[in-house]
Amino acid sequence: MRRSSGFDKLCRMEKRRWVFMVGVVAVTYLLFQSLLLPYENALLSLLPDGEIPVRAESSFLAVHSAAKSVMVRNPLTVNASELSNDSMVVEVVRTEGVGRAIENGGGLKGEDSDAENGFASDEKGLDNDFELFVGGNLNSGSPPYENVVHMNDSSALEIVKNEENSSVLDESGGVSLEQTVKPNNGVSVGKNPEENTSLKSENSKDADTTIISPPLALPRTASSITITHIENVVSNASSSALQREGATLKNDYVLMNSTGKKEMRCNMPPKSITSLYEMNRILARHRRSMRPRRSSVRDQEIVAVKSHIEHAPVVINDPELYAPLFRNVSMFKKSYELMERTLKVYVYRDGSKPIFHQPILKGLYASEGWFMKLMEGNRRFVVKDPRKAHLFYIPFSSRMLEYTLYVRNSHNRTNLRQYLKDYSEKIAAKYPYWNRTGGADHFLVACHDWAPYETRHHMEHCIKALCNADVTAGFKIGRDVSLPETYVRAARNPLRDLGGKPPSQRHILAFYAGNMHGYLRPILLKHWKDKDPDMRIFGPMPPGVASKMNYIQHMKSSKYCICPKGYEVNSPRVVEAIFYECVPVIISDNFVPPFFEVLDWGAFSLIVAEKDIPNLKDILLSIPKEKYLELQLGVRKLQKHFLWHAKPLKYDLFHMTLHSIWYNRVFQIKLR
């Protein structure tokens, strides 16, 4: 009995101890929650790299609930009534589509395609709808390859060929999706639930600390007149009118959707804007170099080249180069000459078709395919011995990666990234070159919107030539290269329809036609469609060959071609305008224009802030005739740098892309 009584006493003491421990845990948790509310931002700032979890807006409390969490996967709208106030977690994920939007929790709207207008769709993808995923996590459950569709080389390529050989609608290489994930309250949201978000405020000193840039000769004063003049025109306008237009524009995206749905970030204006002026400051301010873990003879050669470029002899009246196009034509010419004389590239043979070594030469993603074809077939730069190489090319197609591995409607792209991760680990184990520099002397060329996500983390130190050059989505000015998005209609004749009318025969002030992708284009049409005969601003043109030719003739006959963003910051219209000798007017905040490190975009284009859409005509009319003629001449002189040729020509698009990769690498490296 005594033993039993003693045992019961021990049990009671043990229970009291456990109750006490549970109470302590509960009190600690409550104290933490009480501290989290007023000091949330301070606590979150302790996370590494300033990364913070994405939280719901307005009245929605972002509580991580496994049972009720909601992930919004694309440019879509979600009814507020469908979301409970105590279980909202919103993250934007890029998924493929053909321009449909989910309405009322799953209903589909009609299809869109800019290809109907006679040019490539700005949207990029496969799926025929946007995707809504409720509950769970994309990374949970099955291993990365469980849902992979195994396609052989011929079947994957056949899909692409069927698209390319069909109607005008399919000429884009598949109706595609253009999407922009814009910062909200200074926060840049990743396109996948895996991706943490980074704090990026335009006033933050740490927002671009990882940017690596070559030395920069600032653009000439003459070429910056346009931007200054535009700012003066806007500032000198009637203050009351500007306030009225500004207030209207601020609420335009809300008025476009009167159904009471919650708009996603891709359909809302960015709150953190990086202008062309700010990008120039970033490029001029940051000159950081990466020291290889183990230097080589090739690294020493690159360092020697850097000194020659910095002290390049002054170029005067070069017959092949139009000096006003460049930030510093002397440095560009010297760098290009040294590239031709010095640069050696090793192209990895590893990797299976169709993802590797199988370029797509037609459609919206043709840039990555043409570069792959011309690089792999090049005898001047490519070497068979990797020990002789200064740079290493990873020849994969982001478009074919999507075709081959993405499971339609699976809501999961992790297997695409895992595939490239496995590949990079394979070449790191097989060759010593990746590990020597951490991949900093490796480069890739990709035009699909998913490429930034697919190559994030495991290829983060590589030089990335990307069409999706968005500074809020991880694009590093001075290291990465903004790749021109070129829409090729005929693989055998990429120069079809090249050229346009002379300035005296361009009687249309401004032209735009296209689908209402993203938040910006509806605002553009709201202010200018059918409002002014000089502003030929249209929505989608009807499909057909006649409409296609009408679109081309409009570009050939217009002084200015409006290039507004869609879902992504990049658009093929920029290159189309150059193709048809029309001065491009880029309306896309945070977009880094192609070859930004060497070209002076103020010499041949206008870059207008999204907020200035209500003043667009005033801005265009404020440009003096002499200045317009300079811009148009700059476009004509620039044209040769944006053309693909079956056999590469000096200073063409192939060489310009390779040069920017080379140029950025030269100014990244240091040995001491």
Describe it.
It is built from 19 helices and 19 strands. The strands form six sheets. A five-stranded parallel β-sheet has the order 10-11-12-13-14. A five-stranded parallel β-sheet has the order 16-15-17-18-19, sandwiched between helices. The chain has a three-stranded antiparallel β-sheet with strand order 1-8-7, with no helix packed on it. The N and C termini lie far apart (82 Å). It has 672 residues and is of the alpha/beta class. β15 (508-512), α14 (520-528) and β16 (535-537) form a beta-alpha-beta unit. Among the domains are: 228-269 and 497-642, Rossmann fold, CATH 3.40.50; 277-491 and 653-666, no CATH class.
Outline the fold blueprint.
Layout (H helix, E strand, L loop, with lengths): L1 H35 L3 H5 L6 E2 L17 E3 L5 E2 L22 E2 L3 E2 L23 E3 L18 H12 L22 E2 L8 E3 L25 H12 L2 H17 L5 E2 L13 H10 L11 H14 L18 H14 L2 E3 L18 H11 L14 E3 L4 H8 L8 H17 L2 H5 L4 E5 L4 H4 L8 E4 L14 E2 L25 E5 L7 H9 L6 E3 L7 H12 L1 E7 L8 H7 L3 E5 L18 E2 L8 H6 L3 H14 L14 H14 L6
Parallel strand pairs: 10-11, 11-12, 12-13, 13-14, 15-16, 15-17, 17-18, 18-19
Antiparallel strand pairs: 1-8, 2-6, 3-9, 4-5, 7-8
Helix pairs in contact: 7-8
The order of strands across the largest sheet is 10-11-12-13-14
Mean pLDDT: 72
Major sheet characteristics: 5 strands, parallel
Task: State the distance separating the first and last CA atoms.
Answer: 82 Å
Question: For the CA atoms, what is the radius of gyration?
Answer: 27 Å
- Overall 3D form: globular
